[in-house]
Amino acid sequence: MPKQKTHSGAKKRFKVTGRKKIMRQGTNMRHNLEHKSSKDRRRLSEDRLLKKADMKQARKLLGM
């Protein structure tokens, strides 16, 4: 059986923790940052845990 390739878009957007949980980037951090407060920018820059509903599809894309 051939190997399953990792989805190249998914590997750029997600990272897997040691306990196989998937982390994602915060949203709204690409542009217009000069209009956001420092507090908002700090809060949005944190990585977040992927929701349970999306976990199955993300694992498939990452080849897990």
What does the model show?
The chain is of the alpha+beta class. The protein has a single domain (8-61), classed as Irregular (Factor Xa Inhibitor), CATH 4.10.410.60. It has helices spanning 8-13, 38-44, 52-61; strands spanning 14-16, 22-24, 48-49. A three-stranded antiparallel sheet has the order 1-2-3. β1 (14-16) and β2 form a beta hairpin.
Considering the chains and any ligands shown, give keywords for the structure.
64 residues, 3-stranded antiparallel sheet, 3 helices
Topology:
Layout: H1 8-13, E1 14-16, E2 22-24, H2 38-44, E3 48-49, H3 52-61
Q: Mean pLDDT, nearest integer?
A: 92
Question: Unreliable segments (pLDDT under 50, ≥5 consecutive)?
Answer: none
Q: What's the number of extended β-strand segments?
A: 3
Write down the secondary-structure element order.
HEEHEH
CATH class category name: Few Secondary Structures
Which percent range fits the helix content? Answer: 25-40%
Quaternary assembly = single chain
The geometry reads as elongated
> What value does the Rg take, in angstroms?
15 Å
Main sheet attributes: strand count, strand direction, barrel closure: 3 strands, antiparallel
What is the number of helical segments per DSSP (H or I, 4+ residues)?
Answer: 3
Task: Estimate what percentage of residues fall within beta strands.
Answer: 5-15%
CATH topology: Factor Xa Inhibitor
| Total of domains | 1
Structural class: alpha+beta
CATH architectural label: Irregular
Q: In angstroms, what separates the terminal alpha carbons?
A: 16 Å
Strand order of the largest sheet: 1-2-3
